[in-house]
Amino acid sequence: MRLPYVSNPPSFDNEQDQAIVERVKQRRGDAGLLELDLSLLHSPPVADGWNSYLGSIRTKTTLSTSIREMAICRVAVLNKAWFEWEHHAPLLRACPEIREEYLECILKSPPHDAGASVLDEKHRAVMAYTDAMTIDVNVPGAVFEKLRTSFSDREVVEITATIAAYNCVSRFLVALDVGERNAQKGPLVS
């Protein structure tokens, strides 16, 4: 970690800042605060906005868990955000429709190789879209059209917001070496 984590449990003299801590703790539930939270809490207003936005991405969209977590895991792989992978790969693995080959494909496929021989059509479209958004930012029309034919307008917005949000998360994690994972060459949990 490039910055020290705030103390755990965090204790702020300012009531507003302490209320933010409580909101973050409430969203995390039994898991408790993560190293990510203890980094963000250096700036309680940033932590508060992050908590609200990522809480919505994680719990208030209409996306299936497998679609959401696949996009998050692929972003983690592309950005070498192993802390992110280690927190989300188990959630993806727990989805009944996810086979072990899907995880291997997400983890080992080169960029812009949408796993045609392994993934079903919807997951393949999400993986291609995730690769384009993460690597190139500008999404080719053909990639967008494949996503658009598999998902509703609302789902397209939610998939796009999820990929964008977790690119933000991964960049924060890697830039500050949250969880001390930058030296890793791959995931501890695959």
UniProtKB/TrEMBL annotation:
InterPro entries: AhpD-like
Protein name: Uncharacterized protein
Species of origin: Zopfia rhizophila CBS 207.26
